[in-house]
Amino acid sequence: DADELRRLAEEEVAQLEAEEAQAIREESHVVDIGSDGRIREAPVPLGAPAAHAFPIDMLPDGIREFVQAMAESYEVPVDLPGMLALGAISASVQGKWRVSVRPGWNESLNLYIAVAMEPGEQKSSCFRSIFGPLHAYAHTLVEGWKRAVAPLESAASQRKRSEPKVELPPKPRMFVDDATPETVARLMAAHGERLVIASDEG
Q1: Does residue 173 contact residue 191 with C-beta atoms inside 8 Å?
Q2: Which is nearest to 146 in space by CA: 175, 176, 174, 169?
Q3: What pLDDT digit, counting tens, does each position of 32-83 carry?
Q4: Which of 70, 72, 145, 194 could pair with 95 as two cysteines, CB 3.0-4.6 Å apart?
Q5: Dihedral of CA 80/86/90/92: which sign?
């Protein structure tokens, strides 16, 4: 009867749609069937990117030997001390050198580095060892500033209102590890456009 013919026709259509969807799936491998029966594209797996070995042979002899010694001491890949060493070197030459690629094209020696490793992989220890000398140098700058401003502060406390205000030089600041963009801009303006943003906690 008519109902039976309609049922058979609907089953035939459904079968054809299922076969078409399967053919598309086998051809592209990037389609899926939703709960509503419609064909939809499935996410394309990105896979793990090919990792290149750290080019340690391109480092100068002294830096290469230091990086290799750090990697052996902390039992970490050379990538970790290698990247951190490049960051420390970049921090130490800010405002002192620029690279002239060609006439009219000069670049600063800024580096933007991120090292990602699993917890407990000696990142913090390696970070402190490599950046420790720079932090020590920053401390000596602050101590020198304190000695320099001491007589100025004394003069400022004793000045009369009619006398000009004593201007103190800004306190040296090399490092910041957690700051808003506004704070970073303010600190850079106050310190000759030089600032190191470095943290072992990301």
Answers
A1: yes
A2: 169
A3: 566 676 766 666 777 777 778 899 999 999 999 999 999 999 999 999 999 9
A4: 194
A5: positive
Neighbour-count burial of 112, counting CB atoms closer than 10 A to its CB (0-12 exposed, 13-18 middle, 19+ buried) = exposed
Q: What single letter denotes the amino acid at residue 141?
A: L
Q: 108: number of CA atoms within 13 Å, CB side?
A: 13
Checking 91-98 for CB contacts under 8 A at 24+ apart, the result is 91/131, 91/134, 91/174, 91/196, 91/198, 92/134, 94/194, 94/195, 94/196, 95/192, 95/193, 95/194
Q: What are the structure tokens assigned to 196, written together?
A: 């190191």
**The dihedral of CA 112, 117, 119, 120: what is its sign?**
negative
- State residue 98 phi and psi, 5-degree precision: -135, 155
